[in-house]
């Protein structure tokens, strides 16, 4: 809940209770009470906290888990963790329905698989990837013409 998110976010960002209290213009003692759950911030203070951490108020107050097990920190707007999927013996996986709905993915749609050896893989609809690549290539040609 809120108190756990406050502790988690503060630790992830490397702030002391005093530093956060200063940023949102309250006393360290008042902030400490929020982290213990003794009191809760008003909506104005929640907005200040959300601004400090680059998240929404909604993300600040709700608890997120991966597969109902491990708590995860609130994510910035537009960033999501959708849970895990299992790759079957043929190398196939099922993309969660919520993800398919949000991104308008349908059966048979082409996806581009991108990867980083250290970070993992990403799936991007082929049309969006191809649009971006055409734009990048067009900019490269313009720059090449100007320099050449």
Describe the overall structure.
This protein has helices spanning 2-13, 17-23, 28-36, 43-53, 57-61, 97-103, 126-147; strands at residues 64-66, 70-72, 111-116, 120-125. It has 148 residues and is of the alpha+beta class. It has two domains: 2-72, Orthogonal Bundle (434 Repressor (Amino-terminal Domain)), CATH 1.10.260.40; 97-146, no CATH class. The strands form two sheets. Strands 1-2 form a two-stranded antiparallel sheet. The protein has a two-stranded antiparallel ribbon with strand order 3-4. A hairpin with a 3-residue loop joins strand 3 and strand 4 (120-125). Helix 2 crosses helix 3 (28-36). The longest helix is centred in the C-terminal third of the chain and has 22 residues, at 126-147. The protein is extended. The N and C termini lie far apart (58 Å).
Question: How would you summarize the topology of this molecule?
Answer:
Blueprint: H1 2-13, H2 17-23, H3 28-36, H4 43-53, H5 57-61, E1 64-66, E2 70-72, H6 97-103, E3 111-116, E4 120-125, H7 126-147
Antiparallel strand pairs: 1-2, 3-4
Helix pairs in contact: 2-3
